[in-house]
Amino acid sequence: MQESDDSIERRAATEADVPFLLELRRQTMAEHLRASGVEQSDAESEQRVRARLDCAEIVLRHGAPIGLFKAVRDGSDWTLMQIQIAPGHQGRGIGAALIRALLLEAQQAGAALRLSVLRANLPALRLYQRLGFRSIGETPHSFYLLRGRPSEALPRTIVVGDPASALDTPALLVDLPLMERNIERMLGRFRGTAVQVRPHLKTVKSPLLARRLLEAGARGVCVAKLSEAEVMLAAGIEDVLITSEIAGSAKLARLVALLERHHELKLVVDSAQAADALERALCAAECRVDVLIDLDVGQRRCGVLPGAPALALARHLSQLSCLHLVGIQGYEGHLQQLGDVEAQARECERAMQRLTDTARALRGAGHRIDIVSTGGTGTAELCARHDGVTEVQPGSFVFLDTSYRSIVGAAYECALSVLATVISRPRAGEAVVDAGLKSLSTDSGPAAPKQAGMTYRPAGDEHGILSWQPASGTELQVGDRVELLPSHIDTTINLHDVYYAQRNQVIEGIWPVLARGKVQ
Ligand SMILES: Cc1ncc(COP(=O)(O)O)c(C=O)c1O
């Protein structure tokens, strides 16, 4: 018998519901777990109950709690994490109605819905099959089901809510509490000040993380490449600044296609020649774009020089009809990881002087300069102290890497590791793991094992070697897992399809690195 709609309601779960949820879990799950051969301690059960409690809803019947409905709506891959109806209320179609409503919601959002179900829970399995779910993978205990279009990037036998121990390796592992702390530290520092944060997504390459940063208060985002902008814009993130110069006919054609649909996209230019090429391509397509002058504040990479050359470029831009000058960018990349704090502060002050003096001169010449954008993780605070800076563009702070950690000290923490498995123990004091050059970049040196007393070195594309003093007491067996902290996160993240975000050893998010390989 179908339950009438008005007798069933849902409300957000709170901490106070945890005792009810633990009892509900015992009533609805213990038997199936036992029959499936899954041993779950009380602590593990509680972790599952608490995981993504922010997404949990209490199902009420005539106002009284009778169940749990926990669905994670991340990007275009949603997970039905838990649905449990107390035994006395089963058989009334309550669960089926809730799942049907979620499926409709997912369909409207263009999202696929996935879940895992214990093999022994046959009534649930049959219900999912009736509702159109199909199996995409299986383990000895569970079936993994999906409705909708599967994302090729995502693994088939892991869903949100699974224990981290179920992950295959090598895997890019996010420590969620540390990541959240890093984000809050950076965004919190600037909240309520005149300086905005426009995080650089060249590091994280994920629209889901972009959303989190925007929710934490970021003002728009930066990307390094047009192809990264394509990914972010397609995911609905509109205020995007491409911080590298755009050149070449193929790129201009792609740019025009984007600008026809996305009007908040911003570019940087550092030469009249590049500006003219942009002008020709955009005007032919009747498009306009907001641009920032890219200024060389000392990095000696791209950028027009401060003073007269910048003024000349601004004058040139003012004669163009499809490029619209709105600001100036001066990234001092050469100062981000300067070990000497005093030298860094001194050099940063000089760079900011060049940037803000030029902004003032441009305004004095009648140009509109709303945005003065600069800074990275290592200098954001120093830059923001300087009057005239309107926004900072840090990127690495979200996860940090060991190169940065040695410079920024305790301000941010390493929140990303590569989880690897010991595959061989050929010699005393050494273990071989399954993560080599294809899992961890080495442009900034080798990764560092999270566990103290060991070192890591790559030993080929697919292998790495952990070493320790045989007398140190370290013992590793084949099958053991270790976490390796990347020396450079940007180039390491670009090697992986997905992030696995864990809290208390429960997977809370599986986020595709959607802009992986987007280097054009
Ligand atoms: C133009 C620009 N802005 C900002 C950043 C972010 O710097 P970080 O990753 O050091 O925070 C970068 C990084 O390379 C960059 O190239």
TL;DR of this structure?
The chain has 520 residues and is of the alpha/beta class. It has helices at 18-35, 42-50, 94-109, 122-130, 176-190, 207-215, 226-234, 249-259, 272-284, 308-318, 341-364, 380-384, 402-408, 489-493; strands at residues 8-12, 56-61, 64-74, 77-85, 112-118, 134-138, 142-147, 171-175, 196-197, 221-223, 240-242, 266-269, 289-294, 323-330, 371-374, 391-392, 416-427, 430-433, 448-449, 455-458, 464-467, 481-485, 498-503, 506-512. Helix 1 crosses helix 2 and helix 8 crosses helix 9 (272-284).
Question: How does this structure look, described?
Answer:
This protein has 520 residues and is an alpha/beta fold. Helix content is 31%, strand content 25%. It is built from 14 helices and 24 strands. Strands 8, 17, 18, 19, 20, 21, 22, 23 and 24 form a nine-stranded mixed beta sheet that branches. Strands 1-2-3-4-5-7-6 form a seven-stranded mixed beta sheet, sandwiched between helices. The mean pLDDT is 94. The structure holds pyridoxal-5'-phosphate (PLP). Pyridoxal-5'-phosphate is lined by residues 200, 202-203, 222, 243, 331, 333, 336, 376-378, 393-396. Residues 200, 202-203, 222, 243, 331, 333, 336, 376-378, 393-396 line the site of pyridoxal-5'-phosphate.
Helices and strands, with pairings:
Layout: E1 8-12, H1 18-35, H2 42-50, E2 56-61, E3 64-74, E4 77-85, H3 94-109, E5 112-118, H4 122-130, E6 134-138, E7 142-147, E8 171-175, H5 176-190, E9 196-197, H6 207-215, E10 221-223, H7 226-234, E11 240-242, H8 249-259, E12 266-269, H9 272-284, E13 289-294, H10 308-318, E14 323-330, H11 341-364, E15 371-374, H12 380-384, E16 391-392, H13 402-408, E17 416-427, E18 430-433, E19 448-449, E20 455-458, E21 464-467, E22 481-485, H14 489-493, E23 498-503, E24 506-512
Parallel strand pairs: 4-5, 8-23, 9-16, 10-11, 12-13, 13-14, 14-15, 15-16
Antiparallel strand pairs: 1-2, 2-3, 3-4, 5-7, 6-7, 8-17, 17-18, 17-22, 18-21, 19-22, 20-21, 23-24
Helix pairs in contact: 1-2, 8-9
The structure holds pyridoxal-5'-phosphate.
Pyridoxal-5'-phosphate binds next to loops.
